[in-house]
Design brief:
single chain; Growth Hormone, Chain: A; 6 helices; about 0% strand; globular
Length: about 180
């Protein structure tokens, strides 16, 4: 057992990872109005493609790195989705965005499983709240900023900054993968 995983910071890091995933999805949802359904489906396909890889995170000592890269990747893609003009670029951005969101979400759940296996109280079921709060906050922030005149790119950059800060804060405290016995 990693002594760092016994601290409450590990549980906070897992919740922050779920919050970042929610913020990204909420910000994306505020941008997705009027987007054709086939392009929206690409984000789901990206998520499905990434989940099989992200689901192995508990067996790897890289959960913290995945949270950092996933959070920053998700934050970087939001403004790109706002900028994407051609359907091909928008589709590619949506696919990669879905992959980052699913990877971040799966890694948060894997971190919660590590904490539970190490004898701490289960927190996986509690990840729905920070993710839902993130979805709502991301959608409200981007919608509010756009309603007062911010361009979509600037609105998403502001949200992306908050997402990046949360991912960087969570990064050093993510629980390490447990080794199989």
């Amino acid at each position: 057992m990693n002594p760092a995983d016994e601290r409450p910071e590990a549980a906070l890091a897992v919740r922050l990872a779920a919050l970042v995933a929610g913020l990204g999805v909420g910000g994306w949802a505020a941008l997705a109005t009027g987007t054709p359904a086939p392009l929206l489906t690409l984000s789901i396909l990206g998520a499905l493609a990434a989940v099989s890889v992200a689901g192995t995170a508990p067996r790897r000592p890289c959960g913290a790195t995945i949270v950092l890269m996933g959070g920053i990747g998700l934050a970087a893609l939001l403004p790109l989705i706002a900028l994407a003009g051609a359907p091909a670029w928008l589709g590619l951005a949506q696919f990669v965005f879905g992959a980052f969101a699913a990877t971040l979400d799966a890694t948060a759940r894997s971190g919660a499983d590590v904490i539970r296996r190490q004898g701490h109280r289960p927190i996986r079921g509690g990840l729905h709240a920070p993710r839902a709060v993130g979805v709502l906050a991301g959608a409200v922030l981007v919608t509010l900023l756009r309603s007062v005149g911010f361009e979509p790119v600037l609105a998403t950059l502001i949200l992306s900054a908050a997402m990046t800060i949360a991912a960087v804060v969570a990064w050093p405290y993510m629980p390490a993968a447990s080794r199989p016995a």
